[in-house]
Records
---
Amino acid sequence: MTSPAGDLFAVAESRAPIVLGAQACVLRGFAVDRAPQLLAGVEAIAAAAAFRHLVTPGGRRMAVAMTCCGTLGWTSDARGYRYERADPLTGHAWPAMPGSFATLASEAAQAAGFDGFVPDSVLVNRYVPGTKLSLHQDRDECDLAHPIVSVSLGLPATFQFGGDARGDRVARIALFHGDVVVWGGVDRLRHHGILPLADGHHELTGAARINLTFRRAG
Ligand code: MD6
Ligand code: FE
């Protein structure tokens, strides 16, 4: 018997999809074979559009470091949360989305019951031990009929999955290297977050977790 929580190199033990809601699930290990390629892509993206700590409209510095690729990138400052065609740090277009990223996202969406998902934006989140992401909804995308596909790489994390209302009961799910979460439809506006990342070291990412969330933003 091995303990996934205690083995920082581990991927999830079972590959059975985990149902989070009527239209939300975790595809265990779906991206594990493609992880090295995805991480090489993240390095290239970060070389052109550096990881940065965005400031919320309320003036708080976000603990998670972020960058983007695709035709639209998510950003935040005193003017609000929004998608932009250019990286505010450089004034240049965001790095293009690698073809292998888009393919993975549509395959995962399809496996979760969403046909024809074509992302135009990837938000890349980087967590180090101690970093958390507070409960939030993803609602800045134009058309909420499209699902979101979220890929976890590197150190494991505890995902919080709540309801449509902020005060609804929150479930906790462990996410491991290579896991993919897909949600949309009736579950598209559920609150979610990441608990503070535990200490650790992963052979591919070191002391970090990388999360890719694929969206159709425009
Ligand atoms: C994360 N993910 O896993 C943060 N949002 O690091 C998200 O905020 C998220 O995983 C929308 C859909 C899926 C997600
Ligand atoms: Fe989110």
---
Amino acid sequence: MRLVMKFGGVAIADGRKIKSVADLVKNVKEDANAGKTKELVIVTSALFDVTDILHETAPRIVKEGQVEKVKEFVVAFRAKHDTAASDAITDPRVLTKVKSELKERMDELEKALIGVCLVGELTVRSCDYIVSFGERLAAPILAGTLQSIGIDAVHLTGGDVGIITNDDYGNAQLITGAEETIRARLTSLLADNKVPVVCGYIGETKKGIITTTGRGGSDYTATLIGAAIAADEIWLWKETEGIMSADPKIIKDARKIPYISYREAMELSYFGASVLHPRAIEPVIEKQIPIRVKNLLMPEDEGTLIGKASEHTTKAAKAITLIESTSIINIAGRAVKSISEVAARIFAVLAAEGVDIIMISHGSSERTISVVINSAQQKKAINALRNINTEGAVIRDFTSNSNVCAMGVVGAGMAGSPGVAGKVFSALGNEGVSVIMISQGSSEYNISFVVKKEDAYRTAQAIHDMFEMGK
Ligand code: ASP
Ligand code: MG
């Protein structure tokens, strides 16, 4: 049995938690040793909050331009990781070794921060390098903790195991052919009965420059590795029950979904369910490797199993997600232009600015196009649209509204089954909620729509009730 297990976020918030993660790894390993040998690959993300801290600190340091501030930051940051290591690692010899590794990495981080501070500029490339330290500090701590309880763990960066990516910093993707290297490197460690502890989230370009695969990217690392080494299963450990029918903070009776298909899970993760990295499903679909989202607080629980579509997955509407901080931009093209010309220009400028579009719809008679985007990107999008007409008048005018919420209803059973959309929108009708925009992909796995922010929660509840989701 070959398993990839990923840990991250609150699961590794401090030394005590890292210690219990290590105990769990040992249990899984030894449990299987009684029967079939279990080969484990561990993927770790940064300690809780660390990636956020690095993402906030780097631009702040550049803005302040004071080397003293870098030093202050590094002292506190080092203390956080040293304390975690001291609390988690019980063997003093291992601890000494890990602390010296941490010091080395911390010095590199300090140099990088001083560099951007003095240059006064933070490129996407240097940002990836700086945030990579989150995982590069966590991996030695977790590997050391495992060593101190008798497991032969080795820590490796993404580049070390062959995660070679393109140079799309902040959103890098594996290059073709990389899988073979990953397989060769990891299987030779496994053959020596080692437990590799791999940094999630980060890779390297062919030239050895560090990249990241986007926020939450450790899930993606785990599934890339799982596919490359033909794992039997991939377990993503979280402090949640699994994939839920809705956000339990918003919807009462939200329940764990025991079984979900790859396609459904993909739709959910693209549509704001923060439980998975959006690209995490892709690598395993072809090989049909099952993914389990497991709950650290209830390790015996089966969690949610993500696998191929089956009779379990046919529920018409299984889950509802909302993306709360969204803005809708309505763009009216010039009457003399075709809808394709208008669309071409709009999408070109939005793409050039790196604006991610969540939903699109158009009204051809008026040549209007509406796009829904993340509110954090609203300013960028509006600036881009403002400049469109400098290259020929294409747009007549546009308006935006950030007081909206995008929602997605997901379920494999809606494909080809009439009446699902009818039910969704009659739930809205019953609540007296009016729909601002609608879209449904032709794959019919997802109906998405936009409502006013203030209507969002009760709409979601009404739909959740209507389809008895989670039951
Ligand atoms: N540490 C990275 C992040 O916070 C990657 C991950 O957690 O999966 O986005
Ligand atoms: Mg994280």
---
Amino acid sequence: MKLNELTIAEARKRLDAGDLTSTELTKACIAEIKNQNPTLNAFIEVYEDDALEQALRSDERHSRSECLGALDGVPLGLKDNLLNQGKEVTSGSNILKGHISAYDATAVRKLKGQGAVILGRTNMDEFAMGSSTEHSAYGPTKNPHDLERVPGGSSGGSAVAVAAKMALGALGSDTGGSIRQPAALCGTVGLKPTYGRISRSGLMAMASSLDQIGPFAKTAEDAALILEALQGPDSLDQTTSNHPLFVPEWKKDLSGVRIGLPRQAWGAGMHDEVRSEVMRGVEALKERGAEIKEVDLPYADEALAVYYVVMPCEVSANLARFDGMRYGLRVKDLPLFETYAKSRAKGFGPEARRRILLGTYALSRGYYDAYYLQAKRVQTLIRKAYEQAFTEVDMLVTPTAPNPAFRLGEKTTDPLTMYLEDVFTVGVNVAGLPAVSVPCGKADGMPVGMQLIGRHFDEAGILAAARIFEESD
Ligand code: GLN
């Protein structure tokens, strides 16, 4: 087994025992990046010298019997929307090419504080808008299971970095599924924590009321290790919660755990093999002691509509700051208003422009009540529907995505079919809940993901179930 194929938990044991160094581990990841990245385009920048330097520091700490935490010496990738002081970070956009981070995102600062090795930044859909990583200023990322297919998105680069064993783990962001869906399409674990669990300070905002940072990993156990490193209240993000911190609660079996199958979600259209594989996954959970029952989850269909109103409204507000004046690309020698207009027209790709226009329209006078306010009302109904379901069951199961990875170019000309790929993931963000995608068989020869959705702050419950499923699969 190659070193880069180790899980974080396995690597930790060997690092602690002294039969592996962080330098060896980091070199193995860098070798794999050199080998595969020219084809896969998962990393858009690799910090080889810095990574080896950080690995050396970790090895020196080990020789002094110091360890900063579970991630000390562990090589990870960062999505290109997480600020990393002194490094270029662009959210996959031309408008920010050349933009150097002035400070570290809180999540990045925490990783560094634990001695993690940062391998580089990973490719993404521009400003995290997309489900395929095709809307990137750096070209598309390829799915390692079939180079003709997309890895999902928007955190496709991070998913592929882990799936192709170029990194032991990676960070992504999830506003409507951008961690879980690419994890599903690439065959990795992807966790979207509860809104407020991890600070968003230094995450380039897409839709601030929905965005959340989270891990990609090979296993649920590894995802838990990364979550533990990142979580907690932060004075730089007032939406972080003081709720008790996540502590893993691994279980022997699922006896006493009630798992709900939302009728409305399972009634939706999906690929036949996705349905049968995830049903098989549900059977496996049942064999391990879970009680399975159908539950009602009204407004499951409306979640997509709510998301595609609320999200572009927030996008239009958040992306207003990119005006050619303060950051990145500027079209020069024009009067002020034309500088704004031309810089934005040149710097943003078509999908970002579409969403800025839609959001601006939905917030404009006369339409605000009909669109934004109405969507916010339905958002409340969706939250209540989940609360009601969680009085009957402890967690919910759906497929993560309705289809396995589609072909590159297949959905770029028809945004609505692309948006439909988010049908099972967006409701979780709209309600602020935690959810994990765990690999669950194959459809059309490609990986399938099973999504476990938990109560607010019950990452321990869904990760424990995911781990039991991994053991039984
Ligand atoms: N695919 C969704 C979208 O395009 C989700 C994006 C995300 O979670 N950042 O909006």
---
Amino acid sequence: MDSMQSNNLINNLRTSLDTNVIKQNYLDHLNLSLGKDFKNSTPWDKFYSLSLVIRDRIIKKWHETQQKYYKNDKTKRVHYLSIEFLIGRLLYNNILNLQIEDEIKNAMNELNISLEELAEIEPDAGLGNGGLGRLAACFLDSIATLGIPGYGYGLRYEYGIFKQIFEDGFQKELPDDWLKNGYPWEIERKDRAVKVKFYGRSEPYKDNNGHLRFRWVDTYDILAVPYDIPIVGYGNNVVNTLRLWSSKSINDFDFDNFQKGNYIKASESKIISESISKVLYPNDAFYAGRELRIKQEYFFVSASIQDIIRRFKAQFGTNFKLFPEKNVIQLNDTHPALAIPELMRILLDEELLSWEEAWEITKKTFAYTNHTVMPEALEKWEVHLFEKLLPRHLEILYEINSRFLNNVSKFYPNDINKIRNLSIFEEGSVKQVRMANLSIIGSFSVNGVSKLHTEILKNKVFKDFYDIWPEKFNNKTNGITQRRWLLQCNPELSNLITKHIGNKWIIDLDELKKLEKYADDKEFLNNFHNVKQKNKIRLSNYIYKTLNIKVDPESIFDVQVKRLHEYKRQLLNAMHIIYLYLKLKDDPNYDIVPRTFIFGAKAAPGYKMAKLIIKLINSIAEVINNDTTVNKKLKVVFIPNYNVSLAEIIIPAANVSEQISTAGKEASGTGNMKFALNGALTIGTLDGANIEIKECVGEENIFIFGLTAEQVQRLKESRLYNPYEIYLKNETIRKILDLINSDYFSKGNSELFSDIFQSLLFGINGGYPDEYMLLADFDSYKTKHKEIDKLYRQTFKWNKKALLNVARVGMFSSDRTIKEYAEDIWKVEKI
Ligand code: 26V
């Protein structure tokens, strides 16, 4: 062999797709990386070794992609800053995106190892709560698949979203120690660690030109160490980076204390420093104002901005005027909004630019996405906490605000109300920093996540800003990646689709339109039906295995999976179940198609009402499932620990998708899209993206009920909404609520659910009665469910509608969403 052949051989050793080479690599990793041999290897060892085999096939593409970005002067980089990335598992996802499934399967088969079983070993990277975090993960997949130079930046939480178990039907939280055995997809980059400062004070001084400048001194510094996860594009050799920061103490010991012999105290500060990236806050849309949370926000934002500037300087030196041409930073909600004053601080205090120059650059760099209109989710920080932690940033905010309000008062002389609404600072008994106002003022783009949501932002929540800057506001309706949410989670349906229309849908979801021509094709619909049945059996097996409940795969699988929140109205669903139950108790021959109601939902640990609703649903389940007069027709299953991996089993098995939020409250929803793409029919309100799903699939292929957002608002404003009156007039509703309020579901504890009853009829803790208008929508909800029952009996018609849903939801691919961000906001092209 000459040296060229031998070089080729060496180069191919870890990238080849030859079955024998893959096998050998696998055995080598077991042996050389993990120190195990084939015989004594555990399932974890096998998972880990195979992941390293896959990683070997990623690394070269990763370097090549990054080199390409670096060498190209035209590269404009997108930075997606998000305090959450709800990634889920990566093994199968990476195999699919590399398009090496057959090769890996062959090699594993020859070793007598099932790829599917191995993939199940991987812990979910659960670094997020729900919609916002999962959206970030879908976006990373689309950015890489579209070949856009993109970077995700976030926090490497040691503990992700808690693990949920039920004890006597009550939610209990257990820590999610997902890193305990190591994680094959991350690479620590100690060489890229940066310092992040806290506390201290701002010190004025005169620079060489006699200008007044400031420096941030006497700070307490913490090390931010990046861990990189490769993000593999689908079939395009692109590998982008998700960079997650971990906090580390700069010194393991505080030497002053150490010298004084105070050994324990000497290591205290290490613990404090390293607690920053310890745990994900498990609140979904409830702001609590905790010091550790703002530390998390500033920590990952400061490290990220430093990293972005370092990369810019390596390519373009200190020519900062170029910065916004070469960089854009998307803020995923307000959680990373401190990036705005942080960029200002670095440009002013470290790069010594003038205020005008720095501000020009900053406001051309940032774009802000809002994800909720729930007032309790809006982030505000107490000024005195802010000042203690980030004194220099507070000065910068005062300056931004005063210049901004100066301009505003030229437009609206003497309009105190406008000034009050627009200010970054909220006056009151405790003065606060409003992160949303900061985000709007510091960005060139503000977007909502569905058409309705964006209209609500423009006309209500941020109206005063919209009046000043209408051109800043735009809509970007959310999307989901079909690589995970069809190709990966529903291989049977994927194969059926590909067999008929080819596989271009994997990178162009509008291709699914071609399925419309099978809408009346009996044979196709029959196969389509069989796929759904197989997926239902797969889920039934999971339910039997984990909960010991037998469900009938022939029954309608009616599914609501999402975080538990009053506005999402899981309680409305529960009321409808009680309604059916009472009907059946009244008349055991009452004719309904058997139904299995499936729930999955975590409640924020401090959210009492949400936890009580979980207990209620579990209690209803226990009564119904054990009542032989009804349990042939009704079953209720609450699957614990709903997460990305469970979603991948549950969603493909659904017949009915519950998207029933109070109109005007759900910014977009993304679960709604996943269900429709997998052939479920939606029962939903005219809220968030449901409206756009209806426009796409056609109103005859979706079950819409309830008040519109406008009707909700008008009814609220009129103060005429009186749930107690409905309760008195409507016997059905009365019976349901009385049953909840009795000891029927609570095994004799008649007080247990009284807060639910009270909150619906009279309001609790100063809240409105039936704040989310369940009673107003109940009758129309129940009527739509009756239509669902009727339609399901007509298998052909049902399947046709389900297929038309699949065929017509192509626009909800996150590829479409990302193309819109890229064209309208980021102005980036693929390299
Ligand atoms: C907000 C907060 C507030 C402070 C405490 C911790 C915390 C954690 C997360 C959030 C964000 C909640 C907002 C959110 O997840 N919104 C969801 O975003 C989805 C993606 O745009 C959208 O589909 C859902 O409708 C929306 O509820």
